[in-house]
User: Which sequence fits this backbone?
């Protein structure tokens, strides 16, 4: 049985992806781990796969998507790094993998995921909900349950698919939707790759909603998940083994939400402290902070969101400028400048 796992990131998330790779390989050295990179190398840095905890890399510009440069231009960094997940999933299934797992780059693995492989023996698709237990306080309802109504019931920091008819159908459908509609459009009822998966249990067979509290622990469910350590030093969640923790929004926002819901559960802060040290240890000093090559035109000018929306919504512009990142004569950059869209 061949198990592929992949994650999606820009180079700004490379340190986190390295932590994920190292922790995954600790428990599953036989799994094939792929990094889907929606980026290009910054000046002075060369990505050397041989020195990384990844078995292979998929570059977003090599995905089987029509006019990838125009397609990438339509998305901001979050939209782009989530849009590639569907085509990458489909590609890995087509490569012959028996099972494909997706994990966000800001996840660390703390236990074997073999129980999930067993789950895929009876299910084609695995999903983890943001919450498993109803909230009791007004603030938690607003922060967590209402937030899930807006952003999606299931957290797409995780997904697992078996290479069978139902799994392939779901991957093909999801890939098509993400190629066309992976945008932060909550007013229209979509939120990047995630909100689409609210439809999965209704549209596809053999979907299993994973209710074990040890999977995908994060700030949005800490109000109902107690972290502890047993005498052997193993980490538990409500008495069950911790499998993976989602360290979302590393920094002030993540710290604030963690304090709000971990409260006096000091073991949570120990995990966060460990994770911050690991990210620092795996940091790449040659990558500038906030780097994303597709965040700028080829002359270095930052791309405003208004330009992306214009290109996304004007079919005539998309047809005229196949590579909107270019900045020379007769380019989209020149058109934006001439028409007063760039300051």
Assistant:
């Amino acid at each position: 049985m061949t198990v592929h796992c992949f994650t999606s990131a820009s180079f700004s998330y490379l340190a986190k992806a390295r932590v994920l790779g190292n922790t995954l390989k600790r428990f599953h050295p036989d799994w094939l781990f792929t990094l889907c990179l929606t980026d290009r190398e910054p000046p002075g840095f060369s990505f050397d796969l041989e020195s990384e905890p990844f078995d292979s890399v998929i570059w977003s510009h090599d995905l089987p998507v029509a006019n990838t440069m125009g397609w990438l231009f339509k998305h901001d960094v979050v939209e782009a790094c989530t849009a590639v997940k569907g085509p990458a999933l489909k590609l890995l299934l087509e490569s012959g993998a028996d099972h494909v797992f997706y994990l966000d780059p800001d996840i660390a693995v703390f236990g074997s995921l073999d129980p999930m492989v067993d789950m895929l023996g009876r299910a084609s698709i695995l999903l983890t909900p943001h919450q498993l237990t109803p909230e009791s306080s007004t603030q938690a309802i607003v922060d967590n349950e209402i937030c899930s109504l807006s952003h999606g019931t299931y957290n797409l920091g995780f997904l697992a698919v078996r290479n069978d008819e139902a799994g392939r159908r779901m991957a093909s459908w999801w890939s098509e939707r993400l190629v066309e509609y992976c945008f932060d459009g909550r007013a229209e009822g979509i939120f990047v790759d995630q909100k689409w998966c609210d439809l999965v249990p209704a549209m596809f067979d053999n979907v299993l909603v994973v209710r074990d509290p040890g999977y995908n622990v994060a700030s949005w469910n800490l109000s109902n998940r107690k972290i502890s350590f047993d005498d052997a030093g193993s980490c538990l969640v409500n008495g069950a083994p911790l499998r993976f923790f989602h360290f979302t929004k590393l920094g002030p926002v993540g710290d604030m939400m963690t304090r709000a819901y971990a409260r006096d559960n000091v073991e949570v802060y120990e995990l966060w402290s460990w994770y911050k040290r690991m990210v620092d240890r795996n940091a790449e000093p040659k990558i500038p902070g906030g780097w994303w090559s597709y965040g700028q035109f080829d002359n270095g000018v930052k791309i405003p969101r208004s330009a992306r929306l214009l290109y996304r919504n004007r079919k005539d512009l998309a047809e005229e400028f196949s590579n909107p990142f270019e900045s020379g004569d007769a380019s989209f950059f020149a058109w934006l400048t001439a028409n007063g869209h760039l300051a």
Q: What stands out?
A: DSSP finds 13 helices and 14 strands in the chain. The chain has two domains: 3-212, 296-338. Residues 165-181 form the longest helix (17 residues).
